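Protocol check, entry for the methods section draft. Step 1: assemble the input record (protein sequence plus ligand SMILES). Step 2: submit for complex structure prediction. Step 3: store the structure tokens unaltered in the notebook. Ligand used here: flavin-adenine dinucleotide. Step 1 record:
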Amino acid sequence: MQNIFKNKYLDQKKLVKDHFYYLVSNFSELNQKQIDNLSINIVKNAQSYKAGSPFSKLIHEFSLTSNEGIVLMCLAEALLRIPDAKTINDLIEDKIPIGDWKKYIKNDKDLFVNISSIAFLLTGKIVEEKVEENKNILGKVVKNLSGPILRNAIKQAINILAKQFVFERDIKKAIDFSNEKKHDKYTFSFDMLGEAAVTYEDSDRYYKQYEQAIIETGKGKNPHKKSISIKLSSLHPRYERNKLDLLKKELFPKAYKLTELGRDNNVDICFDAEEADRLNLSLFIFKEIIESKLIDEKYQGFGFAVQAYQKRAFFVLDWLKKYLNEVNKKINIRLVKGAYWDTEIKIAQEQGFTDYPVFTKKFATDISYLACAHKLYENENIFSQFATHNAHSISYIKTLFKDRDFEFQKLHGMGDEIYSYLEKDDNFKCRVYAPVGGYKDLLPYLVRRLLENGANTSFIHQLKTKDFDILKLVQSPLAKIDKLDEDKIKKPIEIYGDRKNSKGLDLSEEDVVDSLKFNGKFKDIKAYSLINGEDVKSDEVIDIKSPHSSITLGKKYFVDEKISEAAIESLKEYSSKWKKFPIEKKVEIFLKFADLIEENTNDIIEICAKESGKSIKNSIAEIREAVDFCRYYSKEALNLFQTQTLKGPTGELNQYRMIGKGLSFVISPWNFPVAIFVGQTVAALITGNVVITKPAEQSSFAAYYIIKLLLKAGLPNNAIALLLGDGALIGKKVINDKKLKNVIFTGSLETAKIIQSTLQQKENIPTFVAETGGLNCMIVDTSALTEHVVKDVVNSGFDSAGQRCSACRILCVEENVYDHTKHTLIGAMKTQQVGNPEELSTDIGPVIDTEAFENINNHIKKFDKVFQIDINLNQGNFVPPTLIEIEKLSDLKNEVFGPVVHMLKYKASNLDQLIEDINDLGFGLTLGIHSRIDKTIDRIVEKAEIGNIYINRNMIGAVVGVQPFGGYEKSGTGPKAGGPEYLKRLCHEQSISNNTASMGGNASLLSEVED
Ligand SMILES: Cc1cc2nc3c(=O)[nH]c(=O)nc-3n(C[C@H](O)[C@H](O)[C@H](O)COP(=O)(O)OP(=O)(O)OC[C@H]3O[C@@H](n4cnc5c(N)ncnc54)[C@H](O)[C@@H]3O)c2cc1C
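Step 3, stored output:
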């Protein structure tokens, strides 16, 4: 499998060319003609196909690239699950007016399309309160209908969309239905709806459904004809590579058991393919099953799907060829192109991966599909199943496999028009993927289908486009090879244009996982202050301990007043030189620094985990943020420090420029020992200031390590001094220094106030930039998807043990969905693993020290309605994720810096009051909103006095330059870190006006004018 692991991010051009040559050398021109003819016939037959469902008419009418298509998708995604009539109406009123429905009402259209369009149109108008006379015949029929009736019609239309894809509501009915005569030509694979379990309760329910489905299917008259499709993500709430050991205990046995049940009941089992980061994991499971005694001569019905849009698809099949030969076993493989393309592109960009795991050109996916088909053809141990609705792919495969047994597969509700042409063949074999279940579980599946039907690149979508060019539609993807160079999708590293995105680590990859096994490099560490670039030893020596273990990691040397004074002195002389140091050279240093941080990623992860108790995932995010700060501020500074010549009267030169102020004091927190520390320090330095940087006592070694890297990158020794030690002692010395110009602080509100009042006593007025905490809320209405909300709350409230100033502290949920949200949230909390942050599987590490531990526990003790998960840890500062129900917002006064989320019930009619109450808390840092209704979102955004608002997503992890971060009032002074105003606050502006005519008159004016 090593080969599969290595190829996730292969270069697209090289890989497609390899596939291209492989295909060309395997196939003759003669076959090409046959393929073209067959494709054309399939398409022509599809054009005249009459039994098109109302759905397909509707969906093809409203392309996803149009407003109307997007409206339909939004409605379909939310309408069926909203519990209360008011929100349903709000949603309809919100979305429908966006569309221009009139243009879809035509007499030559299907009645259903017309009626739906009219319903959309009129509802839109009613909600806009501008009903106008509709002259269309069909319009006249319905023009007198009232708003509620039309709204109901819309609900019905969306119900029909949903029904289009559900085969039946339960497995018994599905089996009966599949046995009806009209389905004689097809076999079936039942898919029990429901994916991505969020809780153990979900996964147990889904497991039981699969069990029942296999048993019922096995009872059928002709069980071999039927199979069951299973999603591994529905069988476990944490189907992730970093949970491998847990999954071995909890998921592997379930997958094994279901396969065993398939064997016992003579039912084929096919495991669906999901996101790319799950590929390795699923292969581990499949390999175990294949090697087990379940797969033998008697049972060859085990199989799984392979996605051709993944660059590794070909290598998976290549491996299977050798492997199945070795073990001498037979399985099924369903070849699909893949249904998560948009998600894969987004994940890779967000995570800063080296490239995409999927192709970025549609024809590359098509070529890969054909190359994979050849690989399957070569493999006698695989029964090939081709799941596609693309006429060219179908024709190619039919021609290639003319002498081999295989089957096609289609989705229920799609591709009928395509396969109807082939039904007449004697050896026609096609299996229908038939979703079974209720609408509640249908939604994620429905959205994927709608995307697939509506996407511009989709074959099915193009087939329905008016006046399409048939030859172009069925053209071989091989003919498009010369378009390989044109790629609109930038590599993840390039998405910010002239600023490189920071590199992420793909924790689903085996070599990355191996590299993260710490080898004890950081034993007996020593953290010193740095003055003139030299380590400074001192008398106050303190043990460095992990917050999660009793092992002593090393020693830190804390400074006294004398050393602090020496540090200040060491910078003063250099201050004017550093101001004048050319900005281009400064930028060179900080870009080099960013590269050095990236090069030392593994060291820094280990330091963050050991010294600060940060999980590996959080440590990576920390490093990326630090790198982004360096690159973002470099780019900003380069612009900011260009002298500008301003327009003015002739005879004078007016210039405007920025210059450093002088001595700056950076005070950083322990919760982001690298990111914030680097961000603040680089901002102060790059604006031409010499800097005393003082990290939190708890993260002294990280700071020492980082400043060593900065000096290595070329920062002059006298531009910075690192002082480790007691904040009050160092603070007193530095803040009272006459030369102090800037104080840049991130930490508690209490300390910020102390600094502020000390600064007020000074003669000059140093700049004070403070970032403090927040009592951050998330507002959830009934249109929100509970599973999505819960994932975001777990992430926003408990990740980093809640030790982020942006963390979600109060979850405000509308009363109609409160109990369900609470129940699901508690279920999701039970899936969180609290423990040693040095292990990849750990979700939540310790809180920073015993003081924090006690404060948080004292807070929790004040409440009655408390839920905590069980953790069995007998050492370390671990606080279990905690949910506390509160009656009113004012039950909370201060930020509780730990893994504690408070939950509050509100009534929709009191939303405005809720926003006011949130404002009255006096903090203004982050706010989360979960709603599908734009008007609700806009209302909250308009009223909330909050610095960072996150809609339908988690509310942590602000990205530098993308979500500039910082709040108002008790949350900080601004400007926002990682935003365009930050650097400006740290330097002086200077305006230089020179009367150039004073010496020798205005010669230039005289020479410019003409007669
Ligand atoms: C029976 C059955 C079972 C299925 N099971 C699974 C499964 O287990 N897992 C799964 O993921 N999907 C599954 N699918 C869905 C399947 O992936 C889609 O139906 C399929 O992608 C559509 O392919 P096509 O050949 O019909 O359409 P086409 O329109 O020819 O191709 C669509 C494919 O091209 C890709 N594409 C679009 N734009 C680009 C681009 N710019 N660059 C690269 N690629 C692009 C799309 O993502 C999609 O994969 C299944 C489908 C069927 C019929």
